[in-house]
Amino acid sequence: MNRRSFLQVSAGGAITLPEFQPKSTLRVAEHPVDRAKFPVIDVHTHLFSLGRKVDPASADSAELLRQIAAWMDHCNLRTLINLTGGTSETIPAILKAFTPFGGKFKTAAEPTWARANDPGYAKWQADELGVCKRQGAIGLKILKTLGLVLRDTGGHLIKVDDPRFDPMWEAAGSLGLPVLIHTSDPAAFFQPIDRFNERWEELGNHPDWSFYGKDYPTRRELHEARNRVIARHPKTTFVGLHVANNPEDLGQVSEWLDRWPNLHVEIGARLGELGRQPRTSRKFFDRYQDRILFGTDATPRGESFPQQDLKPAMFRCYFRYLETEDEYFDYSPAAVPPQGRWRIYGIGLPDSILRKVYHDNAARLFALA
Fold first, then answer.
1. CB neighbourhood size of 249 (10 A)
2. Residue 297 in 3-state DSSP?
3. So what's the architecture of 28-366 in CATH?
4. Phi and psi at residue 362, in whole multiples of 5°?
5. Which of 212, 294, 303, 348 has the fewest CB atoms lying closer than 10 Å?
6. Measured between alpha carbons, how far is 120 from 331 in angstroms, rounded to an integer?
7. How do strand 77-82 and strand 14-16 relate by DSSP bridges?
8. ∠ Cα 283 288 289 (to 5°)
9. What is the pTM of this model?
10. What are the pLDDT tens digits along the chain (369 aa)?
């Protein structure tokens, strides 16, 4: 792929696509929102990640949490839930680091995928989840590892609805731990990286994010496998992260929500899709106001996702989308939009719905104040 991708200009010169940063000539009302109107619970953050080998006990981690806690107060963020909490071996250290900050920070557990092919894994993982709950975990995070990365001893991808995980789903239900599940990815990640792909620039920068071809299942197959899990375990609460990873088709997400009452969704890192369809989104929020949770998929250190750094400016994009009817504004504070070169429109939720999305729905699911 030619990453320079020259654009011809009338003067006869050329600029590259990364250099192309047009300034809108529209004159429209602007209502930036510095502070959320009601207290916020963000159910989808990554404060600590095993992949980044961050030591929760380090002085740097303590200082980072102090900085985050300070601007949380300014932005009216009551609680951030860390979804990369790891296992019973790592959760105690993370929760100890959170202790000085009262209830500002919580954590979820993750399955131990490295043991998935071991004999007796099903029972072991179910028991392990109980240990994590006793330690203080308040949910179970399922990465897209399941379905797109994890393989059996023969090298084949393990399906999301593989029965070996049934005891884990059941344990989550009996323990009262919501399952926050990430299955598949944006539709563009399953399409050829060509001139028709709306995330061509993003995928050109991160070609490893593409799941097109090879032996990957289709996006539809992944969603159907996840939905079979939800249907098989009606007493377990599932939260479909990233609007159940299908914000491009809110009609289909609506069908899923109508069919499975144990399914909820959160909106992390999907303003770029939701904000492009403000009328459809507004109706969606109105209809499912009791089952939509606030999330951002934000990280405090931007090694992998610099555009999603855990900073007030990023949260304020969400506040503006949810609280105002502003037109044609950035869905990210990044200089170059990280997902695509488009802008979004606010949906101006009424206070009664805003309270639920910001706080009440998550407080109910996770038993938080």
1. 15
2. coil
3. Alpha-Beta Barrel (3.20)
4. -70, -40
5. 303
6. 46
7. unpaired
8. 95
9. 0.94
10. 455 555 555 555 788 887 888 889 999 999 999 999 999 999 999 987 544 556 888 888 898 899 999 999 999 999 999 999 999 999 999 999 999 999 999 999 999 999 999 999 999 999 999 999 999 999 999 999 999 999 999 999 999 999 999 999 999 999 999 999 999 999 999 999 999 999 999 999 899 999 999 999 999 999 999 999 999 999 999 999 999 999 999 999 999 999 999 999 999 999 999 999 999 999 999 999 999 999 999 887 544 334 445 689 999 999 999 999 999 999 998 877 789 999 999 999 999 999 999 999 999 999 997
Tokens 């750094």 label which residue? 309
Distance (Å, whole) CA 319 – CA 297: 15
Q: Which residue has the tokens 């393990």?
A: 158
Q: In the chain, which ranges are continuous DSSP H helix?
A: 59-75, 91-98, 121-135, 145-148, 166-175, 200-205, 219-232, 241-245, 250-259, 271-274, 278-287, 312-323, 351-355, 361-366
Name every residue whose Cβ is closer than 8 Å to that of residue 202 and which is 6 or more positions away in sequence. 188, 209, 338, 339, 340
Torsion of CA 169, 171, 176, 180, to 10 degrees: -30
Three-state secondary-structure class, residue 79: strand
**Residue 368 backbone dihedrals phi, psi, to 5 degrees:** -110, 160
| Tokens encoding 267 | 């909106």
Closest CA to 108 of 59, 52, 17, 47: 47
Tokens representing 175 are: 């323990």
Q: Which residues contact 59 (CB under 8 A, 6 or more apart)?
A: none
Q: H or E stretch including 140?
A: strand 140-142
Question: Please, which contacts does 127-130 make with residues 24 or more away whose CB atoms are closer than 8 Å?
Answer: 127/171, 128/87, 128/88, 129/168, 129/171, 129/172, 129/175, 129/177, 130/171, 130/175
Tokens of 363: 């407080």
